Amino acid sequence: MKDKKPRTKLVHGGTKRSQWGEVSEAIFLTQGFVYDNAEQAEQRFIKSGPDEYIYARYGNPTVAMFEERIAMLEGAEDAFATASGMAAVNGALMSMLKAGDHLVSARALFGSCLYIVEDILPRFGVEVTLVDGADLDQWRAAVRPDTKAVFFESMSNPTLELVDIQAVSEIAHAQGALVVVDNVFSTPVFSDALGQGADVIVYSSTKHIDGQGRTLGGVILGTREHIRKVVEPYMKHTGGSMSPFTAWVQLKGLETLDLRVRAQAQSAQAIAEALEGHAKLKQVIYPGLPSHKQAALAQRQMGSGGTMLAIELEGGKAAAFAFLNALDVIVISNNLGDAKSIVTHPATTTHQRLSAEQRQTLGITDGLVRLSVGIEDTDDLIDDILTALDTA
Asked: How wide is the angle at C-alpha 225 spanned by C-alphas 222 and 230, nearest 5°?
């Protein structure tokens, strides 16, 4: 399967069938496993072999199928599936950092990611330096010989600012630091972060991977040594593992991931082009537009503008709320990467815990609206947005 094309891997990769030869992957909905004898139990706790399990927090056959399939798609040696995207972010960073270590992070992060970087890690003695992720000079100035890791979103939430993965990886590796990338907005379909120099990739699989609003999940990908010797001990002892049911649902999501994401990105491009220059908008932010300041980087790094866009309305919060409330097809929620198109007002939801000054620094104005494009008919989405803008 490793030599097959991505869509084939997404349907068949990692599949393990029971003695009944089921077509759809089985859900092994069990918390524990039975041993043939006491000697086998003892040996299993000393060292578990392939397809040998102890406890669902440590590993499970359905979860293992999900891990193998996503690792195969990403080109990673191994993966550890987690209970949520934030469990993945927390696990990826906490498992490798200790008191006295130095982390350099982009400041343009999802609110919960920023909370881990700014509030939680410093409590445990980790020194954190925040930089403008798009400014390579700031990365060069911040990364030091004692820097343990760097962390950033390959495309930031919600302002769609890109970080040059290859360039930042070269800066970090020159000082011996590991590169941890939150790749949610870029998606496994469009991004080759490992090939561009990243060491550890993090996804909220809640988003495009499930992609249909059903389950929370996450995954950490990297080398087998890092996943099994650094990440796994931390995750299995702190309880952030993915459930077998979630793994089964998200295996089904992986089967259609490539089809959905490419359709979403095509619609996002069309919507952005239809909205650019609208009289009621200050700006349309979409990496697939030539007007985006990092359009060239988006094409080089992803080959696409992705599934997300942001618009800034004239009139601030009142105009943004009037627009949201006038939408008919597109729903108001704080998720993204869903089959349904979703609109969010970041300043009052996902990033509301930030101070006004922090939001201003990140470009999260009161008029900014984030749109996650779904798989509905593109013309219906454009009509819904234009009608809501006229009403607002």
From this structure: 85
Taking CA atoms, 298 is separated from 203, 262, 305, 371, in Å, by 19, 15, 6, 18
CA atoms of 298 and 292, how far apart (whole Å): 9
Structure tokens at 388: 């809501």
User: Containing H/E element for 309?
Assistant: strand 308-313
pLDDT of res. 97: 98
**pTM, full prediction:** 0.96
Does position 153 have pLDDT exceeding 90, yes or no?
yes
Assess contact for 359 and 159: CB atoms under 8 A: no
Q: Are 227 and 79 in contact, with CB atoms under 8 Å apart?
A: yes
* Amino acid in position 51: D
3-state secondary structure of 173: helix
Q: In what order do the strands lie in the sheet with 368-372?
A: 281-285, 308-313, 368-372, 342-344, 331-332
Pairing between β-strand 127-131 and β-strand 102-106 as defined by DSSP bridges:
parallel
pLDDT given at position 267 = 98
Q: What is the pLDDT of residue 330?
A: 98
- Letter for the amino acid at 343? V
